[in-house]
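Notes from the 1:1 (GR / supervisor)

We went over the backlog. Supervisor wanted to see one worked example end to end before approving the batch request, so GR pasted a single chain during the call. The sequence is below; no edits were made to it. Supervisor asked that the structure be written out right there so they could see what the output format looks like.
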Amino acid sequence: MSAPTDAALLFDAPGPRGRRRIIVWSVISTLVILGVIAAGLTVFAQHGQLDADRWAPFTSVGYISFLWQGLEGTLAATAVAMVVAFPLALGLALLRVSRNRVASTFAAGWIEFFRAIPMLLIVYAFLLFLPRQPIGLDLPLFWKLVIPMIITSSATTAETFRSGILAVDHGQREAGRSIGLTEGQSMRLVILPQAIRLVVPSLINALISLLKDSTLGYVVSYPELTQQGKVITTYTGLMIQTYIVVAVIYVVINMILSRVANRLDRRMHRRAAAAYAARAEGIDELEVNDAAGRLT
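Structure output shown during the call:
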C-alpha cells in the first residue's frame, strides 16, 4: 500500500502528450528568458554599462562595507518582524477559528482589513500621521518600518495558520475529546503540532515576503539594503550597477530560503509517507491476526 501524494490528491498526473507539452513550453520559456537577458546585456554593452571601470567600485572595501551595513539592517528588520508577526498571526488564527463570535469577528476584521491595504500605505501612516505633538510620539526609523511589516505579515500569515488548522483531520479533535482532553487542550496538544508541521514551508514563503517588504525601508530612510543602494546611486551615478548588485544579493538570500523550504517540505513528505506506511502495515497485521483468530 503506497502513501498518496499531494499531487495525486490535487490533480491527475499528465499523460505522455501532457508531459511532452510541458517540456516544450518549458524549453520555449527558458529560451525566451535567455533571449531577453541577452538583449539586455547587449544594450548595456553598447552604452558602456558593462565596462570594468563601472563595476570596479563594488570590489572596494568601502562599498562592500556600506552594502553590508544595509544587509544587516535588512536582516535585523526581517528577523524582528518575523519573531513578533508569526506568534501574533497564530493567535489571530486561533481567535478566528474559535467559537467565541466576538473574538472570531475581531480576528476576521483585522485579517481582512490589513490584507486589503498595501503595506506602503501603512508605512506612510506611521511616517506622516503619528501624533508627534503634543505628546511627542516619534518612533525610531527601525520601528516605523518593522511595525507595518508586523501588521501586514500577521494578517496574511494568520490565514496560513488557519488553513493548516482546518487541514488537520476533524477526527483528531474528536480523538482528543474522547480521551478526556478539553477543547483547548485538544487544540494545543493534538491539532496545533500537526497544523504547524503542515504550514512550515508556507511560513518560509511568508519569511521571504517579509524580506522583500523590508525594501520599503527607503520610505522612512531606514538604512536597509535598498536604501544603501539608493545612497550609493546618489553619490556615484552608477544606478544600473548598484541595483543589479543589490538585486543579486536579494536573489541569493531568497534562493537560500527557498532551498530551506523545499528541504523541509521533502522531509515532511518523507515522514508522512513513513507514518502512512507504518499505519498501513499495522492495519495489515491486525487483519492477518483477525483472520487467523477466526480460523482457529
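Supervisor's comment: Residues 1-10 have pLDDT under 50 and may be disordered.
Batch request approved.
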